[in-house]
Amino acid sequence: MTETTSTLAPAAVPRTRRLKVLPIIELTLLAIGLLLPLVLQDYLTVFGTRVLILCLFALSFDLVWGYSGIMSFGQAVFFGSAGYGVALLARDLDITSMLLVIPAGVLIGFAIALLIGGFLLLGRNPSSVIFVSLGTLTGSYAFDRLARGWYYLGGQNGIPSIPPMQIAGYDLTEGPVFYYFVLAILLLVYLGCRFLVRSQFGLALAGLRENEQRIAFFGYKVQHIKAIIFSLAGAIAGLAGSLYAFHEGFVWPNMLGVVMSTQVVLYVLFGGSGTLIGAVIGTVVIELVSFWLSNSYQDIWPIILGCLMLAVVLFRPAGLISLILTERERIGEFGRPPAADNKERRHGPA
């Protein structure tokens, strides 16, 4: 009897582990980023630093759109406001210490995003996608016109000749040091965002993006979740804006306007939304292609770039990252199945 029972019991089936592509992509890009200043000329290192800052900006938009389903056409408001804020600190108060200007930029981006998010998202009734899109677009246009017409902010000319940022008395100027400084910040922010979107809060964000009404039915305060992630994304955009201001040495109204807000949408759309790494890839590819086309085809390069982006959107709606990343890995895994379920799968029901 014992022999018969042991014969009928299902054997343990080893679970095959699929090779994860996402960590390979992330580590490859990190290795390339670490080695680039060693082989690039100085002007290309400066260009690479600018691209890394824009990658940070693209991450902020991917959080609100790719993971939360909030279409924000005003992300440049937080980016440019932080840039203007730290520029005024440097010009009027002679404050250039990294320990002060970087937190100030983050706080400015967070505060303005909290105010705009509170107005657009925390109403009595849930806000529609169109309402938030047009509201943020209007805010971006209003901030742009305000900067152009305010003499204290330099008007059309912006604020030039910003003093370099200082770290322990050392002037942080364009070059490899600034490049690695920005790369370290981008890596820390990326890891923080990766942890956030793979947490239980990230699971709520994913549900919010797919079916907002069902998440509300489960008892989640949908509007509060939207306001939280909107404010966090504003803080990241403010961080990028403050770095951009000190790297470029000046700020101008275009940093606040609709063009910059639309540009970050294209970064994420081109690379692939809802992946974080897609925002980085989209930013790098668009900036590299723009740099090459503008030098090779000075008269028609915007048309070529537009056709290329249109082709990607038509044939790869999920972005370039969908060429190498499966849908399952793009969505990710949230936690592990209970131990009892694993035991039952291995040995069968008791």
Key words describing this protein structure:
350 residues; two-stranded antiparallel sheet; 2 strands; 2% strand; disordered N terminus
Structure description:
- The protein is an all-alpha fold and 350 residues long.
- The protein has helices at 2-8, 21-39, 42-65, 75-92, 98-121, 129-149, 176-197, 200-210, 212-217, 222-248, 258-271, 277-296, 301-315, 327-331, 339-347, and strands at residues 165-167, 170-172.
- Helix 12 (277-296) runs antiparallel to helix 13 (301-315).
- The longest helix has 27 residues, at 222-248.
- Mean pLDDT is 84; it is low at 1-16 and 340-346.
Low-confidence segments: 1-16, 340-346
The percentage helix is 55-70%
Distance between the termini: 17 Å
Q: What is the 3D shape?
A: globular
Main-sheet strand order equals 1-2
Oligomerization category of the chains in this entry:
single chain
In N-to-C order, the SSE pattern is: HHHHHHEEHHHHHHHHH
How many strands? Answer: 2
Using only C-alpha atoms, the radius of gyration works out to 23 Å
Number of helices: 15
The fraction of residues assigned to DSSP E strands is: under 5%
Main pleated sheet: 2 strands, antiparallel
Could you report the average pLDDT, rounded to the nearest whole number? 84
Global structural class: mainly alpha
What is this structure's SSE topology?
Layout: H1 2-8, H2 21-39, H3 42-65, H4 75-92, H5 98-121, H6 129-149, E1 165-167, E2 170-172, H7 176-197, H8 200-210, H9 212-217, H10 222-248, H11 258-271, H12 277-296, H13 301-315, H14 327-331, H15 339-347
Antiparallel strand pairs: 1-2
Helix pairs in contact: 2-7, 3-7, 3-10, 3-11, 3-12, 4-5, 4-6, 4-10, 5-10, 11-12, 12-13
